[in-house]
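Subject: design request, 88 residues
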């Protein structure tokens, strides 16, 4: 499973506005942006992103995942305050 497959799963399953997936099967880094994170704690946001990927994790197609999640408003604010290219 490659990064584009993971991105497609997340966008489709979670109806995300934007998703960035980098890394390899040993460590995937995900930045997810969507309304699904509105009013949700950081822990719950992690769980939301893990849910559609759980089979890939349990079947060891992916070893580790790092997740950063934003609402669209948080993403816009973060882009203005930081150069987020270091996170990708």
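Subject: RE: design request

Done. Sequence follows.
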């Amino acid at each position: 499973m490659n990064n584009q497959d993971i991105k497609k799963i997340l966008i489709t399953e979670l109806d995300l506005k934007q998703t960035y997936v980098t890394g390899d099967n040993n460590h995937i880094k995900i930045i997810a942006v969507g309304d699904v994170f509105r009013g949700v704690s950081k822990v719950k946001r992690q769980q939301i992103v893990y849910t559609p990927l759980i089979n890939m994790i349990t079947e060891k197609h992916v070893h580790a995942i790092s997740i950063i999640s934003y609402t669209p408003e948080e993403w816009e604010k973060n882009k203005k305050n930081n150069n987020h290219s270091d996170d990708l």
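The longest strand covers residues 18-24.
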